[in-house]
Specification:
The chain is an alpha/beta fold and about 240 residues long. It has ten helices and five strands. The structure holds CO-5-methoxybenzimidazolylcobamide.
Length: about 240
Amino acid sequence: MADEQDDIVLSELDDDELVLQMHDDLYDGLREEIEEGVNILLGRGWQPYDVLTKALVEGMRIVGIDFRDGILFVPEVLLAANAMKAGMAILKPLLAETGAPQLGKMVIGTVKGDIHDIGKNLVSMMMEGAGFDVIDLGINNPVENYLEAINNEQPDILGMSALLTTTMPYMKVVIDALKEKGIRDDYVVLVGGAPLNEEFGKAIGADAYCRDAAVAVETAKSYMDRKHNKLAAGA
Ligand code: B1M
């Protein structure tokens, strides 16, 4: 792979070839090449969101398939994740550059026992870009972290992420704790992560399951619209 890599000049590839090459480079965990590829696509006028979804997220989807099938292992996937994060770091300020007015506040974190954070980071980035103030609690959050953040930050929305079938039930633990404290209805609870679905979201008492970051933004916006309309009607 290294020899082949030496022969490839990313800037000489057309867009389609470059995107495919970036999928390969992500697979190989080549951080610098990913950064270069992201910058080339942006230089060619690509929208940051398209670079994110077509070059990075799609590349990570392919990594996920081979991880599942036992072709890639944790150290290799970690390298891929680091390369993905390097690409995301370039895109983050661009996605946040919309100058949108503050729409609301969200506290988000990956649940206890789970250290996957790429999808959650993406949701945070897109929410910030859409004009939300985002408090990111990071990974492996026990219920106490969510409760403390909610108490301190008084957000409109609580977001939770889980990527493992073994950790997704923990979302219900958090929602049940909100219920016990009598504050469940004070917040919109949005959940997401690859193993979840709409049915699961309903079953645990979340307001909505969000398939991806774009859906998270749209869902959050529509809840904020409803909240503002309600307030206006009550005023
Ligand atoms: Co992990 N891993 N992993 N892993 N890993 C998965 C999730 C897995 C599906 C791989 C597989 O087998 N195909 C599998 C889970 C199987 C299952 O439970 N059904 C798995 C496993 C088994 C494991 C370990 C147990 C492996 C081991 O140690 N033997 C271990 C667990 C560690 C732990 O958490 N305790 C582990 C470890 C790791 C790494 C550390 C190597 C690395 C994580 C690095 C990191 O995140 N910093 C890793 C990775 C990278 C993956 C895959 C390959 C990619 C995940 C990812 O980043 N996707 C993943 C395979 C897969 O998902 N296809 C896999 C890209 C990201 C953009 O998508 O996270 O789905 P996603 O986020 C999307 C949506 O889901 C949604 O929006 C995002 C953006 O569009 N979304 C939300 C997510 N969170 C949201 C929150 C919201 C809204 C929407 O709130 C409002």
